[in-house]
Design goal:
Bound molecules: flavin mononucleotide
Low-confidence stretches: none
Number of strands: 10
Strand order of the largest sheet: 3-10-9-8-7-6-5-4
Helix content: 40-55%
Largest sheet: 8 strands, parallel
Mean pLDDT: 97
CATH superfamily of the largest domain: Aldolase class I
């Protein structure tokens, strides 16, 4: 049976179906976004980008801000702790052609928390709001905020509501809520009940839900159960870019297509070539190793293929794994 979902609207942008390839550090670079777009991803986020790095001219900055021709609409995500530097980074992303600027108040990595960035800001709502206000003032396009339900259970939800209310008052176009605390990182189940409460509270504010969406049926389930305007797909998209095509199939009432070995190989080769273009052969094949491990899950002999990808240390070996296991 066909399923109808309303498009996601962020400012003037209209995203159909209402899903986003979430920000994934180490994964959602130009190469992987391109692969996901070719399989139907309608809206993508970059990996988080450190504000300061965006202000330093050089190769890294150029690579971070590179957007493909068909890589729109796209959100550029920034992380930092100083309102002025975050504002300058946001302006830089606007000049580089990003359609949306996304502020990260969610990252739970220890190094990030120590530097008072990402999820740490959920402990200091007033600073978080100064950052948001500065970014909104500096950006001439929609600003969104990625946050979690709170820092930890002990801190309660007060900071969340303070930041969420203040963000919409400041003119933010949407909130993307990962329904876990920072302390939880990726453990336990995402609290969709919390998402439902957020959406009930902000009836006219755009809410994107994040957490535990592992396939097309879950996209629909999240919208139905929480009322979210949009759904972010993160871990389930790593090594399964077909998830976007499968969603299209599911929404149209068709059985979701699974890629056969020949198609897996074609996409792996495309992804590899794009990655090498971006980083060069050595760094590129290192970066592809962790993707290979995830792509292996779709192979009929997942354990063997996973082990082969784990052992790839130089560019030629990547090709050999494809020839050995993906010769259909
Ligand atoms: C490896 C990895 C990297 C991530 N990087 C980012 C990031 O750069 N920015 C961000 O806002 N969230 C990041 N996240 C969080 C995801 O966007 C998402 O909110 C979370 O994984 C829950 O969704 P899922 O259950 O669909 O994976 C990352 C998650 C993982 C697993």
């Amino acid at each position: 049976m066909a399923e109808e979902l309303k498009p996601l609207r962020i400012g003037e942008l209209v995203v159909r179906p209402p899903v986003v390839l979430a920000a994934l550090a180490g994964y959602t670079d130009l190469a992987y976004r391109t692969v996901c777009r070719e399989l139907g991803a309608p809206f993508c986020s970059t990996e988080m980008m450190l504000d300061r790095q965006l202000l330093l001219p050089g190769k890294l900055r150029r690579r971070l801000v590179r957007i493909g021709q068909d890589d729109h609409p796209i959100a550029g995500q920034i992380i930092g702790s100083d309102p002025g530097t975050m504002a300058a980074a946001a302006a830089e992303l606007c000049r580089s052609g990003f359609d949306v600027i996304d502020v990260n108040l969610a990252c739970p990595a220890r190094k990030v928390l120590r530097r008072r960035r990402g999820g740490y800001l959920l402990r200091v709502p007033e600073l978080a709001l100064r950052i948001i206000q500065a970014v909104v003032a500096a950006a001439d396009r929609p600003v969104t905020v990625k946050l979690r339900t709170g820092f930890d259970a002990a801190g309660g939800e007060t900071a969340f509501w303070r930041i969420a209310e203040g963000a919409f008052e400041a003119g933010v176009a949407a909130l993307c809520v990962h329904a876990r605390t920072v302390e939880q990182r990726y453990t336990g189940r995402a609290d969709w009940g919390f998402l439902a409460r957020v959406k009930a509270h902000f009836a006219t504010g755009c809410i994107i839900g994040s957490g535990d969406v592992d396939g097309p049926a879950k996209v629909v389930e999240m919208v139905r159960r929480t009322g979210a305007d949009g759904v972010a797909i993160a871990r389930a998209a790593i090594g399964n870019p077909w998830i976007f095509r499968q969603l299209e199939d599911y929404l149209a009432g068709r059985p979701p297509r699974r890629p056969d070995l020949a198609e897996q190989r074609r996409v792996l080769e495309r992804h590899y070539a794009l990655t090498v273009q971006l980083y060069g052969p050595r760094r590129g094949s290192n970066r592809m190793r962790k993707f290979g491990i995830k792509y292996a899950k779709l192979h009929p002999a997942p354990k063997k293929v996973r082990a082969a990808f784990v052992n790839v240390t130089h560019p030629g070996q990547w090709q050999r794994v494809l020839e050995t296991f993906y010769d259909g």
